[in-house]
Amino acid sequence: MQDIRNIAIIAHVDHGKTTLVDRILHQVKLFRDNQDMGELILDSNDLERERGITILAKNVSVRYKGVKINIIDTPGHSDFGGEVERVLNMADGVILLVDAFEGPMPQTRFVLQKAIALGLKPIVVVNKVDKPNCSPDEVHEAVFELMYSLDASEDQLDFQTLYGSSKQGWMSHGWQEPTQDISALLDTILEVIPPPEEKTGTLQMQISSLDYSSYLGRIAVGRITRGNIKMGMPVSVVKRNGSVARSVVKELYRFEGLGKEKVKTEISSGEICAVLGIENFEIGDTIADAELPEAMKPINVDEPTMSMLFTINNSPFFGKEGIYVTSRHIRDRLFKETEKNLAMRVEETGSPEKLLVYGRGILHISILVETMRREGYEFQLGQPQVIVKEKNGRKYEIKFSLEEAMEYIKGDEYVEVTPKSIRLRKILLEETERKRQKGQGNV
After folding, report:
1. What is the pTM of this model?
2. Above 70 in pLDDT, residue 306?
């Protein structure tokens, strides 16, 4: 079995995750010296490049000092938290990236909470120390306090911290000691992140991601938790509802660099691979032994927080812009989206022409709307509605009950509040503490 490290990079939006992956790819000489790959290499989607954010979690593999490092780049915006939740089970550790000026932010807490619950070993990287007026030491203390408040274990609290600038291409154990490259980070990954445990027995592999090829069809991507898998091997697909379907592995790929490499040999537990030939599968299903299928625990994601009505375009301008205009086209496309987008749900309504789409926020649904528009779909939208649930005769937004919100604000975390949001939610601001002359307060 080859030496492997599986690691996910998590952070708040715009704290430098994808830029850090760029530097890692250049550090390990994945490209020729005269090859211009541009910036934000993994943000290959048109919408990602236009908006400057990561929308989809992606896998990339590098080799450093004879060790293969599988890196999972994740989105930072809370609306795409479902992408983070579904891929964290493929990792053995996380790199928590924190801005040296902003410190831990709301999404930092969300993704870190998920990683700690899974028992993943963290490496903290205080990024952007080249910013003026930044406070790396204070940020380090804030991260420790955040982990402590999230009930991190002793091993997780004993994390290593690196400082640096992804943009300038250096990492160091001291923020006042700039280096020439990011080898300190790669060395720390090999030292701190444990290699995957080799588990013998019958095959278990949970499908964490979907890929698609117009030539090869649907591709199941996941980490082999137990046993081995090879090309031509008969397997079972265990669904969420417990049903079992027989299938055969027609082709097998492992991640190498930015792409995939076809392999004919056996792949052992701990490796992340892509499987072709499996039919009628969904994210969260388990690829298991053909004779003794054993399901893994389903991937759970947080509930949607917002809904929007999708319907056919019945205006006088019907058919002017889109190619796919019927309710059948729109219905098929929306249900197809739910296969790979775990945080999104689609529900039928009383009318066959109308569908309710549930997502994690305005941005989450708007990305789907824009993607469909570019694919040639034409439809009408209703006004976004916040999902409200009723408990003990009182109504709550789906994210927090009043008690949960107060518990969140009472803690020692830094939360973003504005006078308008305080007034709308009827929150009484009793005490604030000025934070590093930036106008932010600790409530």
Report:
1. 0.79
2. yes
